[in-house]
Amino acid sequence: MPREPDNSDLALQTMVSRDGVRRGAQTPGTPATTAVLVVSIMVLWAAAGCARQSEASVGDAEIPAPAGSSIPVTSPAPTNTAPSRDPKLIPVEEGTTLTATPKGKVPGYDGPEGTVTQQVTDLYYDRSTKLPVIDQVPGWLRVRLAPKPNGSTVWLRAADVEVGSTPWKIVINLTTTHLQLYEHGEQVLDAPVGVGADATPTATGEFFVTFMQPAPSSSYGPWVMVTSGHSNVIQVWEGFPDGILAIHGPVGAEGVIGNTGARLSNGCIRMRLEDQKKLTEVQPGSPIWIIA
């Protein structure tokens, strides 16, 4: 039975606040000290509502669907970047997604041979990340970006990045409250999850794994998977100017998630611990689809 969302991370946020540290988001790619990094990431969880207020549940954040999103409304068999047959394009193995790691700070363009609109790095909140490739033409790659706004993309010169690939893809169905994990196009996990409650729903969109962060406590499981999704509902959380979607353990709600899943968070995805462990090998740059 669905239950009202709570804000289960106030204890962690209060701990940060008592240290007198209230910093805004680090601009991705800006050098920072280790202390600033730790505080930034801990507050980042709180911004997504992923800190503890009680042992019973966790609060998270909604991630609204990007404008013009073409996400289907029923769970699809995931399709990744189509295999390339043009010898001038980077080949893509079926069932995988190309990833791009910028070689330091590189220019981002509004199109192939277009205008420079921004600088792109291999860092997100001072942690190494990879960007999924969603399109390509000879010499150019179009990638998803992690910073706001949701759905941001940019074109990069292929010569400015290290190209890799990931066999993983995550599909989260909000109607069935289940998470499906695919490896090389084959489903390897179908697990019930906790999703956003009616008042703070997890929105649909196309996102990706940015990095894996050590969990703040054992109730989150072994790690927190930080994604590229941002909340349009929670703009500021305890002084931190962002709300970021994460995937993590149940934070005391394993029994509520049960075998069917539940609507109990402020937007983050909560998993039973045994199911969460099966996502441990999922790499940065791996696509995440959240569908209705």
Strand content: 25-35%
Structural class: mainly beta
CATH architecture of the largest domain: Beta Barrel
Class of the largest domain, according to the CATH hierarchy? Mainly Beta
Strand segment count: 18
The number of helical segments is 4
Point out poorly predicted stretches.
1-77
Shape field: globular
Overall residue-averaged pLDDT value: 78
Main sheet overview:
8 strands, mixed, barrel
Order of strands, main sheet, comes to 10-11-12-17-15-14-13-18
Q: Provide the CATH superfamily of the largest domain.
A: L,D-transpeptidase catalytic domain-like
Helix content range = 10-25%
Total individual domains: 2
What's the arrangement of secondary structure elements?
Elements: H1 10-18, H2 34-47, E1 97-102, E2 106-109, E3 116-120, E4 123-124, E5 127-128, E6 131-137, E7 140-144, E8 153-157, E9 161-166, E10 168-173, E11 178-183, E12 186-196, E13 205-214, E14 223-230, E15 244-248, H3 254-257, E16 262-265, E17 269-271, H4 273-276, E18 287-291
Parallel strand pairs: 10-18, 12-16, 15-17
Antiparallel strand pairs: 1-6, 1-9, 2-3, 4-5, 6-7, 7-8, 10-11, 11-12, 12-17, 13-14, 13-18, 14-15
Helix pairs in contact: 1-2
